[in-house]
Amino acid sequence: MSIEAKVTLVGAGPGDPELISLKGIKAIQKADVILYDALVNEELLDYAKADCIKIYVGKRAEQLSTSQDEINRLLVDYALNYGHVVRLKGGDPFVFGRGGEEIDHVAQYGIETAVVPGISSAIGLTGLQQIPLTYRGISESFWVITGSKSDGSLSSDLYLAAESNATVVVLMGYGKLAEIVAIYRDKNLHHLPIALIQNGSLPNEKVVLGTIDNILDESTEKRVGVPAIIIIGEVVAKHRSFQQIKEKALAL
To answer: Are 84 and 6 in contact (CB under 8 A)?
Structure first.
């Protein structure tokens, strides 16, 4: 019996295992091999066949337990030797997930590829907190920006985004929160609402609200850590708890 090599990139969503698509679950059920990341909820592996090979390849925030080159090699090797490989990735594979790089690499070997989109944390976690990324009369667009480029530097797009009225969502940027805040302070946007969401959609989720001027103190007081996303913009004030933040700021 010949092996039919195939690689399917599946977005697992932001963390809650119920936020994966039905098509994603079906792909997991058919997989001969699953390569999964650190941000993937391991409950999803329960859908796999009993004889499915499951391989953890790390990748959390800016840290890599398995290099991208090695992951690319594993995708090809397992597809050619075992058949259907599911690359299970947190969020959406094509939103700062290097999904495009992996597809390009696999395609060089003539291996069939497919993609099952996932709910990106940029959209999913804000929605769960009832923070609308766009809102008539407040925000006409939104930016999703990486907080740290491959060389470790801050994305220059953040400077451009701060010039607009758009909602800005920063992924993989909590470690550079102070630098991001400085950009907005330089624009005299001291009272602009900002939110931090750590472990979004999970039981240990932590949400911290504030303004550009006080978010560093708030994040320290609430002991926020990674993984966390940053949302900046007037729409953050739509969060049900933000009125308390405004009252606290006016009292100072």
So the answer is: yes
